[in-house]
Amino acid sequence: MARANASRFRFNPPGWFLLLPAVLFLIAFFVLPLVDDGLRSIRADDGSLTLARYVAILSDRFYLGVIVETVALSSAVTVICVLIGYPVAYHLVRRAGCWSALIVFLLIAPLLTSIIMRTFGWQVLFARRGLINTLLVQDLGLLEQPLRILNTPGLAIAALVHVLVPFMVLSIAAVLQGIDQRLEEGAQVLGASRWRTFVEITLPLSLDGIGTGAILVFMIANGSFVTLALLGGGFQTLPLFIFQQFNTTRDFGMASTMSTVLLVIAMACLYLQLRLVRRQGI
Amino acid sequence: MTMLTRRRLLQTGAGAGLMLAGASRMAMGQARTLNVTAYGGVWETTIRSCFVAPFEAKTGAKATVSLGSPAQWLAQVEASPAKPPLDVLIMTPDLAITAAQADRMQDFTVEKIPNLAKIPRQFTDACLGKGTYFDYGVAGITYNKKTVPNPPKSFAEFVDRVAAGDFVASVPSITYAVTPIMLIWAMAQALGGSVENVDPFFDAMKKMKKNLLFWSGPNDFFNHLASGEADLGIYFDGRTWNHYDEGATWIDFVNPKEGGALAAVAIQIPKNADPLAFAYLNEVLDAQNQTRFAEVMNYAVTNEDVVYSAKLKPRITPWQQAAFPPYEKIAAVRNGWVDRWNREIGR
Amino acid sequence: MGGFLLSLFVVAFFAFMLAPIVVVVVISFTSAGYAAFPIPGWSLRWFYRIWEYPPFVDAMITSVQVAVLATVLSCVLAIPAALYLTRARSGWADGVTTFLLSPLSVPMIVIGFSSLFFLTWIGIGISFTALVITHTVACLPYVLRTVTAVHRAVPPAYEEAAAILGAGRWATFREVTLPLIRPGIAAGALFSFLTSFDNLPISFFFGSAQTNTLPVVMLSYIENQFDPSIAALSTLQLLLAVICLLAADRIYGIEKMTVAA
Known about the structure:
The structure holds three protein chains of three kinds. Chain B is an alpha/beta fold. Helix content of chain B is about 45%, strand content about 15%. Chain B has 13 helices and ten strands. Chain C starts with a helix and ends with a helix. In chain C, about 75% of the residues lie in helices and about 0% in strands. Chains in contact: A-B, A-C, B-C.
């Protein structure tokens, strides 16, 4: 065994060699294009360098509000996903045995349905004369007036949770599976209640899953615009404005400026989250 | 040692030479294949049968059809201006102006495209001579006959009755690329404003606020109507007839008295494109080909010799009865409108 | 009692998840020429429409190819990095992790746009290769993150024991680490595949007659018509997903997916 080892690894690289492929790949195909694009944000129309666009955004109360709204919305969606996703993941792993094919399918079904049709589905359900309102007003007579649900912030958040919660559930489930169940059984044998076992053993051990899910959900929410563009709700976020720069105004300099600002904010949040996870984690 | 390096050098050189040869062969192969563009679905099939087929028959060349959207095609040409991946671009009038102003497109002349003589001068001028329109519709008022028995006949009436709560209206949101023209400019000038003064539009939006929905794409509008979320809205005539023909017979269209905004499809040829592109363009602007295109697509076409069928004729709003947007002037102030929309209307 | 409430919650959760999807699936079987609910009658005509419209079929094949390749490439690049980062104790490891996850925080439309210009500049241009590269950029973070999370729950003692017993790095990885981190890889690969398959903002900029993916063709298709074939495509995708998951279940078995077994 030792000899096989020696012959196979005559070249014995330090551990950080493992990082190289991923790091180099991202430098070549992510950092360089972004830097190239980022130059658009600091180049004035006459070719000289300028920070005017950054000043324009960061000194404008309107855009500062938009930045706050972006982070607030992503955070809210993340918290909701944790609250909804954890019990589901727990149920899947501990009660339903494990994530059987059917349950995984049910979870990812929203991600497999084109966004256009998903939006259409929401409209059919919640329109003024849609299924839910028809049921409540005509069939059951519970309401006088149809509820106004479409184009409300609530539905936009629900739709975001709908597509992002699978990331949360599967992230938590993957970690929950890794927890040795004998630890939980042991605690119960020693007289701990189910609830105490959960709070003192299971929950701390699965924090990494919550961390992963939270990071993924937060980041995706922070960078996505399609759901908000299609379902409205009145949110004004940076990704939505970036899309607008591409689609309506074709102001690529501004688009680049906004995405740099978004990137910096997101990276800061990400770094903080990672430190937090590491401190809380095992 | 020297030998080795030299041999290696030679190998590298040979490899590079082979690759170059391959590349130039590919370039030569491309010279006989024209890359044209289309929206997917019926649009594409109609483009193939009405324009690509006669082009291939006459020139013996082949044409591939790229499905996509104007913003995508323009970006692809901008990324590679010396060797554009596409030879003919379908464009929105706005983007056509942008591309022409950036000097990315070729001039259209009757020498290069004989059928251009049959296209109203205004359409080529609107693309600054670097392109023209080949079909058009009008953005007016589309409504559900079941819930709106007596539709508004003008923008002014539309605004008043929506503000009064007679019905819920669905108008394009600012994420839709043509909104500054079909809604902001069209409504502003109908209500007494102009390119320089769009206050009437923003005032009207404030009045209608409570009974207003926003659509982010054309299908979204249809969904709003079909699901009962809205009763009427600002939309295109051609699409309205398409929905009607597909079975949504409860839908109808009015061109507002002040004139809805012309909504044209522009066509352009990027610089350094295959010269065959002009032969293709001549087919696109041909009266016979355009007639067949119009009958399938329910949109008006631009060749003046085209005679529409009895079914299509009443559906077409001649461009003279639509409001012709001053695209160039609008392009200069559009970003300011969008910014104002973001701050005042907010979605 | 608590168990009952939990079950009830899970049922409500899945009702929420599936409600809009059910609407879409029903509409894909409509006999009407347009998408509206309730449907006037049942028919398979929109599935036939997909079959007879070649760009849909071609684009679906391209999408699957890109998604599979991007997922494989993401795993090859991200798993070694994840293994190292989990065990690294220093603060800069967090910095590297942040960097490797950062593609998640850039709107994909920006990745697509800047890559179009950059890749055209270096000669890769609008090609299948470009699609795989850019999709990998977007997918890599998922694998990295899920594998890290699961690997961190594995006590280092397992791997140390294997090493003490004389197993080489590769043998340790294959025999000890890989089986333990399999749920993380499975989750990451699944996220990665779905992200790539559903991606519009990146693929959009690399679309051409040869490289169009399904979302790009769908976007172009609905520009002028909105018929239930888009719903039928979604139903078809769901069907394919069921088949793939059932196949994976049959081949690998449920217990292989779990560590505890």
